[in-house]
């Protein structure tokens, strides 16, 4: 079977990573990164394109197209194999430590023989690191702090976006088989947890399951087979993600999904509920304990109904009150919320263009892409001058307004004149009131000083919230999944200030952020504070991150009525005007 776009993109991303570790020219590294981004954004299956047409995909050059063609024809890329041989795995591991770049990783490996995180700990403990020229006591302290931060990330779990890509490739490979009737991924991936430790893959078939298990274990993505059974197969993929396959009959599909989707605590509560009704639940069905007769199994809704429950969305199955809220026993009316869905979103209030130094598409292109997604409004919030070499000064934003007017004219979209402000050391932002008053929408976020304690970060955010022109706090904890934990904040004080001033909190939909975290976002929803699901898109394909954001917001029990970007533009403008009038 030809490689999927996801597989091709992942290979080129790995080449870029290894080229950087090998000290190659940064333009060559960036070419492979851009090619990977282009493949992920492509609306055509590259395997179906004639090889000579690969360069028609925007972002694929001659060299990168050759690598793609090589993989499509042979299943491998010689350059990738060569780089894997040349770059020690230990060097790649070291770059996972915050603050350790490729050059430092190579020096630690080549000059001290450090090839793993454990060996780095040992080198720090013995003082060997500080013996390297240019790496003194301060560098040693930074490395030690970086290791501590990495450990806090729980290195055994992958960010949801990485795990999702791998899982979808596994799913697609199985779905292509004629003997597979249905296939789905369950577990924490289906619940959209921020990080994933392993993936549960479920298949329904009327056929012999043995060939399906064998094909799963033989997939190119698989690095190691842990379990090779008739009822369960377990493998480790190339990215270290464990995947478990279970095959059931179509009649058991609903029971299997219920059994393998919920958290451990949720499943305990469900099974206890079954026992109180004289029933038992496993992956094959909900059955009577006395005679083993199956009561429900084909659909999740049937299983839930047999337990006197309304259907519980997978994203809620964490034992956080969802079972009680779904209770229909004795004619009770369930109190589950009507959860927000991607189709409920009608606007996006955080996006970038190439007017920002980190934007990757023109303002007109971004606006057209937003219009194509059916949005009613889109805010272009390029960075302000507090981010050197990236942000715009007041004069730059004034010039940008011509491009905004042109985009409004050509797309018919309501393009809001916005800015992403930097929350500076004492909570001030980049511009004074006279400049801020010209913007339609202002999102403020912390980009520097991430190391400060909770009290300091909270004071900075509270000062920004008190600004009449700040409408939302962007990516409020600053976390990047798999890279750095968020800084601590005192959410209670922030929620109180947001509720008082009419300031929203962003749920940044980038799958590398998903910030606010769900547990904090649920507190915001309970406090009556607006959530803003925004993509923070820097390129057109990233506008699709709205789907991530809306689905993740379900984990916060958010309904459309509590999400500002589900409201019409008039409601957004009223929120902006009300705050300026009240605090201005």
Your description of this structure?
- The model has no long low-confidence stretch (mean pLDDT about 90).
- The protein is α/β, with parallel strands linked by helices.
- The protein has helices at about 5-20, 25-40, 60-75, 80-85, 90-95, 100-110, 115-125, 135-150, 160-175, 185-190, 210-215, 255-260, 265-275, 300-305, 320-325, 365-370, 395-410, 435, 455-465, 490-500, 520-525, 545-555, 570-584; strands at about 160, 180-185, 195, 200-205, 220-230, 230-235, 240-250, 280, 285-290, 295, 345-350, 375-385, 415-420, 440-445, 470-475, 505-510, 530-535.
- It has five domains: about 5-85, DNA polymerase, domain 1, CATH 1.10.150.110; about 90-150, DNA polymerase, domain 1 (Orthogonal Bundle); about 160-250, Beta Polymerase, domain 2; about 255-330, DNA polymerase, thumb domain (Beta Polymerase, domain 3); about 340-584, Metal-dependent hydrolases (TIM Barrel, Alpha-Beta Barrel), CATH 3.20.20.140.
- Strand 5 (about 220-230) and strand 6 form a beta hairpin.
- Strands 11-12-13-14-15-16-17 form a seven-stranded parallel sheet.
Determine the CATH superfamily of the largest domain. Metal-dependent hydrolases
Instruction: Quickly give the CATH architecture of the largest domain.
Output: Alpha-Beta Barrel
What is the helix fraction of residues, given as a range? Answer: 40-55%
Which whole number gives the mean pLDDT?
Answer: 91
The helix count comes to 23
Distance between the termini: 62 Å
If you compute it from the alpha carbons, what radius of gyration comes out, rounded to the nearest whole angstrom?
26 Å
Counted beta strands: 17
- Sheet-strand content, in percent, reads 5-15%
Residue stretches low in confidence (pLDDT < 50, at least 5 long) are: none
Major sheet: order of its strands?
A: 11-12-13-14-15-16-17
CATH topology of the largest domain: TIM Barrel
Coarse shape: globular
Please describe the biggest sheet, giving its number of strands, its sense, and whether it closes into a barrel: 7 strands, parallel
CATH level 1 name of the largest domain: Alpha Beta
Summed up, the domain count is 5
Structural class by secondary-structure content: alpha/beta
């Amino acid at each position: 079977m030809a490689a999927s776009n996801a597989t091709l993109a992942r290979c080129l991303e790995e080449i870029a990573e290894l080229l950087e570790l090998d000290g190659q020219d940064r333009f060559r590294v960036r070419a492979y990164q851009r090619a990977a981004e282009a493949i992920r954004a492509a609306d055509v299956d590259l395997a179906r394109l004639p090889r000579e047409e690969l360069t028609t995909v925007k972002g694929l050059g001659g060299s990168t197209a050759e690598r793609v063609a090589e993989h499509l024809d042979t299943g491998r890329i010689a350059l990738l194999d060569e780089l894997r041989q040349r770059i020690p795995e230990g060097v790649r591991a070291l770059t996972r430590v915050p603050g350790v770049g490729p050059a430092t990783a190579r020096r630690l490996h080549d000059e001290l023989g450090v090839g793993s995180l454990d060996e780095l700990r040992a080198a720090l403990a013995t003082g060997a690191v500080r013996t390297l020229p240019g790496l003194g006591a301060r560098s040693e302290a930074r490395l030690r702090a970086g290791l501590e931060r990495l450990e806090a990330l729980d290195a055994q779990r992958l960010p949801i976006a990485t795990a999702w890509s791998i899982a979808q490739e596994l799913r697609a490979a199985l779905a292509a088989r004629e003997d597979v009737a249905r296939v789905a991924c369950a577990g924490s991936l289906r619940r959209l947890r921020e990080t994933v430790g392993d993936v549960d893959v479920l298949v329904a078939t009327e056929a012999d399951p043995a060939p399906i298990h064998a094909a799963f274990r033989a997939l190119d993505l698989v690095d190691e087979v842990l379990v090779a059974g008739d009822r369960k197969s377990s493998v480790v993929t190339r990215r270290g993600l464990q995947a478990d396959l279970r095959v059931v009959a179509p009649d058991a599909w609903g029971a299997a999904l219920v059994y393998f989707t919920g958290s451990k605590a949720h499943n305990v509560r469900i099974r206890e509920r079954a026992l109180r009704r004289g029933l038992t639940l496993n992956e094959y069905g909900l059955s009577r304990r006395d005679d083993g007769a199956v009561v429900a199994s084909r659909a999740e809704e049937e299983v839930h109904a047999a337990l006197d429950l309304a259907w519980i969305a997978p994203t809620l199955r964490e034992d956080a009150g969802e079972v009680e809220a779904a209770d229909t026993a004795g004619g009770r009316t369930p109190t589950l919320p009507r959860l927000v869905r991607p189709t409920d979103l009608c606007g996006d209030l955080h996006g970038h263009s190439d007017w920002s130094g980190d934007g990757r598409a023109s303002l007109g292109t971004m606006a057209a892409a937003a219009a194509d997604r059916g949005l009613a409004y889109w805010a272009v919030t390029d960075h302000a001058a507090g981010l050197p070499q990236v942000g715009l000064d007041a004069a730059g934003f004034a010039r940008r307004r011509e491009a905004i007017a042109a985009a409004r004219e050509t797309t018919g979209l309501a393009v809001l004149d916005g800015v992403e402000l930097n929350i500076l050391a004492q909570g001030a932002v980049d511009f004074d009131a006279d400049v801020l008053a010209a913007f339609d929408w202002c999102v403020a976020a912390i980009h520097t000083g991430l190391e400060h304690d909770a009290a300091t970060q909270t004071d900075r955010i509270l000062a920004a919230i008190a600004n009449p022109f700040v409408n939302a706090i962007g990516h409020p904890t600053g976390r990047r999944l798999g890279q750095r934990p968020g800084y601590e904040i005192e959410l209670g004080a922030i929620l109180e200030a947001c509720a008082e001033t009419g300031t929203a909190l962003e749920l940044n939909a980038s799958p590398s952020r998903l910030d606010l975290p769900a547990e904090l976002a649920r507190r915001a929803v309970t406090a009556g504070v607006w959530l803003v699901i925004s993509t923070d898109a820097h390129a057109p394909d990233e506008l699709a991150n709205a789907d991530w954001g809306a689905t993740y917001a379900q984990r916060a029990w958010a309904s459309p009525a509590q999400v500002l970007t589900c409201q019409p533009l008039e409601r957004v403008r009223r929120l902006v005007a009300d705050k300026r009038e009240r605090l201005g």
